[in-house]
Design a protein that fits this description.
two-stranded antiparallel sheet, 9 helices, 2 strands, mainly alpha, about 170 residues
């Protein structure tokens, strides 16, 4: 029985930092096409639930502020893009910075400031340097529909997922 518990425990630990970021990447890519609420609600909710289970503090509800940052928009007509006079790096970097700031509750509770700082730099770099580039697309069949998802969305959301989960779990 102890071997089974150990195996399940090891599986869950590895899934947190490998399988879950991939799922977040797929949700981000899928949510970019038709269902923006998947990006804006489900992804922050996953971070919040993970942090709630790990830290056992209702303060982690602050992670839901990521929903607001993902709702700001960064397209041609967005206020943020106009503020930065069309500069993609600054526009997307602002989103990455705000997402990183949403995670600040974790090191406040855990004291893991170094991992927070390093992961935040990673989130900001991915959003500012990668998120606005085109890498092509791939097809996914979900819920009976075949959708074309952008590879860049998968990369950005899986990277953000991995780095956010590192902040939570390390």
């Amino acid at each position: 029985m102890n071997k089974i518990k150990l195996w399940v425990s090891n599986f869950l630990k590895s899934f947190k930092l490998s399988g879950l970021p991939a799922i977040l990447g797929l949700l981000g890519a899928y949510g970019g096409q038709e269902n923006k609420w998947i990006r804006r609600i489900i992804i922050p909710l996953i971070f919040t639930i993970c942090a709630l289970i790990e830290l056992k503090s209702l303060c982690v509800i602050l992670l839901m502020t990521i929903s607001g940052w993902l709702s700001l928009g960064y397209g041609e007509t967005s206020v943020l893009r106009k503020f930065w006079k069309g500069n993609n790096i600054l526009t997307r970097g602002t989103i990455g910075t705000l997402i990183s700031l949403s995670f600040i509750i974790v090191p406040i509770l855990k004291g893991t400031w170094l991992i927070y700082l390093l992961a935040s730099i990673g989130i900001i770099l991915v959003w500012s340097l990668v998120s606005w580039r085109g890498f092509g697309s791939f097809k996914v069949k979900l819920f009976g529909k075949e959708l074309e998802c952008l590879k860049v969305d998968f990369l950005v959301y899986s990277s953000t997922g991995l780095l956010g989960l590192l902040i939570i779990y390390k």
